[in-house]
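# nightly structure sweep
# worker-07 picked up a monomer target from the shared queue
# config: single-sequence mode, recycle default, output format = structure tokens
# input follows
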Amino acid sequence: MAPQPARIFHSLGAAAFLAAVASMGGCGSDAGSTVSKTSTPGSIAPESNPPPPPRPQNKEECDACGGLWAVHGIEPAESCICATKDSGKRCADGRECQGQCIVDAEAGFQIMDSSSPPRGFFTGTCSPYDTTFGCLLVIPRGVDDLLPLPADEAAQHICID
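# output follows
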């Protein structure tokens, strides 16, 4: 049986989790649209970041980070998701956010090169918490270094349970 995504995230951290999701082929109905970040030339590789600080282990520690202490995702135990300092900030690269840069549905794909397929970038907003749940279109860390990209490579469909 494959490890559950929430357990992978909590044990690896955000960058490693995104790489793990990509290698597992995504989740749910978005599995066919997940872009592999390890198999194509010029693909986005996970950044080597310092390890994240330890997750708060109780409500008091969670309150200290402005977080939400509750049951999140499919994991039945209570845990903490910490608030980010840049919630709602406009972003065009995942490196611009403490959490994730989530694509704005209204913003659409900004075309920089009208070749076939058109190439460009997405814009988004920084997530309110360091961990988000559900299926989202996320702008990866380091995408700015590869622009312009076709729409299917400029963001990743990910699911976090």
